[in-house]
Protein: Tetraspanin
Organism: Anseranas semipalmata
Amino acid sequence: IFILFLFFQILGAVILGFGIWILADKTSFIAVLQTSSPSLKTGAYILISVGALTMLMGFLGCLGAVNEIRCLLGLYFTCLMVILITQVAAGLVIYFQKEALKEELSNIMKRLITDYDPVNGDKNLQDAWDYVQKQIACCGWSGAMDWEDNTVLINKSMSVYPCSCSNSSKDSEEYTGFCKLDGPLNGTATYVDWPVHEQGCMDGVQKWLKDNLGIILGVCTGVAVIELLGMILSISLCKNIHSEDYTKVPKS
């Protein structure tokens, strides 16, 4: 059981670190979301709180087991149950609200593309989005046509395109900003004239989630099973302690 308590210390540290990474990261899809969506930033703070609580519970559970303190083991059991119920509830909310979440995410991404401006825009946010397009080899959220709503491109008659979308070798060193179309243009260009990836980033993200769904579900299930095991062991140990001796509690 002490190994189990130690695991919860490690698990808490991982959750805490993940929450901090979400807030600190500046070069990934998570960075785009947490900068654009207050709800993800709130979620990061919740993760930090849950991680800190899990570490504290691991310590209290270990202390209760070593010194046979039933109230600490009971507190450990209760907190684990609350965390497990919260995780299940969050999973159900995400599952049943997935279409609403997908629509909100699409609105966030399309607003970012519309407001993208290398000169006057939020550089950190735009660099993160450029990084996403470059790494996933995608363009726009639904597709390159999303960029036709960008104010800067409209003012330039679509004669430029986002460099991070480019599938051309000549733009391989460009990661941010806009690149100029080669050759003369007959009137206003469209996204069809741009040398960019056809895949939208939404498809790329969905493909990544689909490819890694087994790993994600496996990790979530494993954590839930271990939490349930911790609850069973802690309540069993608590029942086996017939009387409490508070003289065993370490004095500060």
Residues 38 and 44 are 10 Å apart (CA to CA). The two ends are 25 Å apart (CA to CA).
